[in-house]
Amino acid sequence: MKGLKHVLTKFLGAMGCCLIALGCGEITEEEVPRTTAGAIDAYLGHLKPLLQELRSLDMEIARAVPADSVSSDVIVPLIQSHFHPKLIALSNKVQEITPAPELATVHKHLRNYLRLRLEAFDLAIEGARLNDSAFFEQFGVRLAEADEAGRALTSALNAVRYDLNSF
To answer: What is the pTM of this model?
Structure first.
């Protein structure tokens, strides 16, 4: 399961970068037109605790995954019993938020990111259940796709901030 260790290490690094980028910068009312500032602030106000929960989950995963070795018999039970349910709860909370029109793309990328992570976790669980390494290969692929979605999320958020700062 050397590949699983590499995939999880890469995943944790990408998560940290994505979440740090999401937490950077603040939008003030002076930087945006008054007509959208309240909607954007409300959305970001709803999003902030969810991103904090996601960061917390990422830290829990980092603590739970041994740095020197990762095996499916260690990580899959943690995914199944702890990380997967938390990610489902976060995803459900994100689905309940209606973004301001200027943040629809950001929201779409966040939902896509969470969906891909959930799919990756599902693949790991199924791979362990069937004792099939092909599922773990797909787990790695799905995590890479989640990393890409995380980069798209960061890019979309930065674009929104740039657009709002140009007013």
So the answer is: 0.73
Output the pLDDT for position 164.
58
Distance of alpha carbon 96 from the chain centroid? 16
- Cα–Cα distance between 89 and 70 in angstroms, integer? 25
Range of the domain at 87: 2-165
Q: In the structure encoding, which two tokens stand for residue 10, read together?
A: 């890469």
- List pLDDT tens digits, range 40-65: 777 777 877 887 898 888 788 778 77
SS3 24: coil
Domains contained in the chain, number: 1
Residues 6+ apart with CB under 8 A from 163: 102
**Helix, strand, coil fractions of the chain, as percent rounded to 5:** 85, 0, 15
Residue in this structure with the two tokens 């390494």, named with its chain if needed: 133
